[in-house]
Design brief:
By secondary structure, the chain is an alpha+beta fold. Helices cover 21% and strands 35% of the residues. It starts with 7 loop residues before the first strand and ends with a strand.
């Protein structure tokens, strides 16, 4: 086979969960993505809301079986030597659609080829093939080392639990319920003093409400530092549950910054500046608090943007007063206050 060599690697990635503007929930998923020639393979296909079969929240036996399968230590799950490369983030039903490819060996090399979008047992390459993607030839040693590291415990499991510290108990309860709905554990407390280090290690982020003073914040940080536990700290922008969920989702993002699709967001002068690294669907949602402390939510943009920087005008009513903008793709979330 004449395919040129491509580099193969793995990196943590996520399907961003959240509370959407229409009231629906999107479940958070952590997974390991395939990095081909330095870029996530998912970005080279199309703007898919999908995850690899190497999901961090499946039982260890299933995760191990998926790795063994990609190493060709088990029969292909689909006819024609086809393997699922990306599938539905909410279920394992092929009917939802999946990106599949034929994986084979040529001497010591591994070959991924004939990529296709598949919704039934047999793939139709002429109708649904990803023409121009692949074939990819990976050196055997590099390929086995990357996948083998997953079996050797070479990657730390994501910590999908958040500690919520604030003064408004009702708001914290609603926030915790929303986080649990999308698959993120949440606990509420006022004091972490005396908590064993093993318990602190379960948390990936700590979120502070606006009423929590700097002295209390510093005390919490000291407790985690003394325990040798690194967490992301979130300063809640406003008592708005979907906005706080978006902030926490961003804090939990473990994917390398240089391999993210959504890389920039600014909000000022009645417009949002968005930067993306590859064509993708971007949704912008504005949140604001009025003088009576009521919250308002407006979906201000939903469309596909090409790679690069974009300026998107925002409805003046949507960003009146104290307001915030959330930018969302399938894999990441950014949040900014509207500058005045």
């Amino acid at each position: 086979m004449s395919a040129e060599y491509a580099t193969f690697g793995l990196a943590p990635a996520m399907r961003a969960g959240g509370v959407l503007a229409n009231g629906n929930y999107q479940v958070h998923r952590d997974f390991v993505d395939f990095i081909v020639d330095g870029r996530p393979l998912l970005f080279q296909l199309s703007d898919l809301d999908a995850v690899s079969p190497l999901a961090s929240d499946v039982p260890p036996a299933i995760f191990t079986a998926q790795v063994r399968s990609l190493l060709l230590e088990a029969e292909a799950p689909l006819p024609g030597g086809r393997y699922v490369i990306y599938g539905c983030p909410d279920c394992e039903d092929l009917a939802c659609g999946a990106v599949t490819a034929v994986i084979g060996k040529d001497d010591d090399d591994y070959i991924w080829q004939d990529f296709a979008w598949q919704t039934e047992e047999h793939a139709d390459l002429e109708l649904n093939g990803y023409h121009g993607i692949g074939p990819f030839r990976f050196r055997g040693a590099e390929y086995r080392a990357a996948l083998g590291s997953l079996l050797d415990g070479g990657s730390e499991a994501p910590r999908r639990r958040v500690l919520l510290i604030g003064a408004r108990v009702a708001l914290l309860a609603k926030l915790a319920a929303a986080l649990r709905t999308i698959g993120i554990g949440a606990d509420i407390t006022h004091d972490v003093g005396g908590v064993p280090a093993d318990e602190l290690r379960a948390y990936g982020a700590v979120a502070f409400g606006r009423a929590i003073g700097e002295e209390q914040r510093a005390a919490v940080r000291r407790v985690f530092a003394d325990a040798g536990v690194e967490v992301a700290y979130v300063d809640g922008l406003a008592p708005i549950v979907p906005l706080l969920v978006a902030q926490i989702e961003h804090a939990l993002d473990r994917s390398p910054v240089e391999q993210r699709r959504l890389t920039g967001l600014v909000a000022a002068d009645g417009a949002a500046g968005v930067e993306v690294t590859s064509p993708c669907r971007v949704r912008l949602t504005a949140y604001r608090v009025d003088r009576l402390y009521r919250t308002h939510e407006h979906e201000v943009f939903d469309g596909v943007l090409e790679a690069g920087r974009h300026r998107i005008a925002l409805d003046a009513k949507a960003v009146k007063g104290e307001s915030f903008v959330v930018a969302r793709t399938s894999g990441s979330v950014l949040v900014e206050s509207m500058a005045r």
